[in-house]
Amino acid sequence: MKTGKKWTLLLLMMVSFVLTSCGKVPDVDSVLQNGATEFSQGKTEKDFALISSEEILNRLIDDFSGSRSEPDADELSDDEAKKIQDSTDDDNKIGGTGGDGSEPGGTEPGDGSEPGGTEPGDGSEPGGTEPGDGNEPGGTEPGDGSEPDGTEPEDGSEPDGTQPGNGTEEPEGPVMVASRDDLKKLMHQMFDETKEVLNFQCADGFTTTMDEITELYLEIEREDPIDAICLARYGYHYSGNSWMIFYEYHMDVDTLRMMKEETHGLLTEAVQNIDVTGLSDYEIVCAVNDYLCDTVEYPDAEPYAEETHTAYSAFKNGSAVCDGYSRAAKLLLNEFGVECDFVVGTCTNGGGHAWNLVKLDGQWYQLDVTWNDGSAEYDPNGRSMYLLVTDDYMKQSRTWDESVYPTSAAEAYAG
């Protein structure tokens, strides 16, 4: 037998031995089929399908709406108003209920009198003294050691004659409000100082309503993402010309004041962590969007902690719901010189929601950082899904009061 045939026979014998010992060798198609069967065990068809844009939208609406904190608004009864007045420390009020309800200090507004109740035009000096009689203002004799109103300082009394610390000081009167702007400034001051009660009287024919107070609250919320937060309830009461506005917060005022103060420092730290050197405004918006998507997470389950509605929690804890994301975005973009608005509305499932409007190249664009972060769970490019888009695009998922917000550009920002 030739050598070539010997080697061929030997090879055939070895193959036969292997097949006999190990069984039939499966082909490639069989391997793939068996693997696919095992992998799909217990799964349904939808587990293998790509998520459609419609399905992503539905998931975003279900998972990332309804978390906006909206305070209740009430008109108080007489008994409830009295209870709030009596239970609120004077330090947490603006204006009091004492006096005759006039200018701060108790003078009568609009009657032509000077501060302190003196009549102008009679030739007297403020306080009722006659000029040229050698007396000091207030009728006191010069050099007698008395104070300007004639009281003796030696008895330890204050200049108005009251004894310090004996609780007999003249009660503070309500603040006078003559316009919508006056009232808005005072309501904003309540947030800035975390006050709970504002006592005021209307002047010059001005009056207000619950609807107007709500409008003012929403305006202040848009303008001040640090201080106008955590409001659980607000409302008003009036009797005659005496009015009261009250704020009820979700937490005690000392804790809330601490959070507000700390937010300023946290914002500074966040700004330092975003390098915007040489970036255009568009690139800055993208950088802020990415920063918040990287550093903030939406809480897993309700009830959401009250602080998650704030920029404070977004910066400090890395946890926020929609209004926390949106307040943080507004603060950061404003710090970088990009105009940004805070928007509130309602998603198609009835859930409250908050997002932003951003102004670039003279036009406004919609921005929802919360949903950009959420979209990334379903789409690798999800972070840009709600980045500088149009009103029409947003209307697929939500509504808002279009009369009070800027209208967006007709086309999404091209970048």
Describe the structure.
This protein has 415 residues and is of the alpha/beta class. The protein is 35% helix and 14% strand. It has 12 helices and 11 strands. Strands 1, 2, 3, 4, 5 and 6 form a 6-stranded mixed sheet that branches. Helix 5 (180-192) crosses helix 6, helix 8 packs antiparallel against helix 10 (322-335) and helix 8 packs across helix 11. 27% of the residues are buried. Residues 42-49, 100-154 and 156-165 have low confidence and may be disordered.
What is the strand and helix layout of this fold?
Layout: H1 3-22, H2 28-39, H3 53-63, E1 72-75, H4 78-87, E2 93-94, E3 175-177, H5 180-192, E4 197-202, H6 210-223, E5 231-239, E6 242-249, H7 253-272, H8 281-295, H9 311-316, H10 322-335, E7 340-347, E8 352-360, E9 363-367, H11 369-375, E10 387-389, H12 391-394, E11 398-399
Parallel strand pairs: 1-5, 2-4, 3-4
Antiparallel strand pairs: 4-6, 5-6, 7-8, 7-11, 8-9, 9-10
Helix pairs in contact: 5-6, 8-10, 8-11
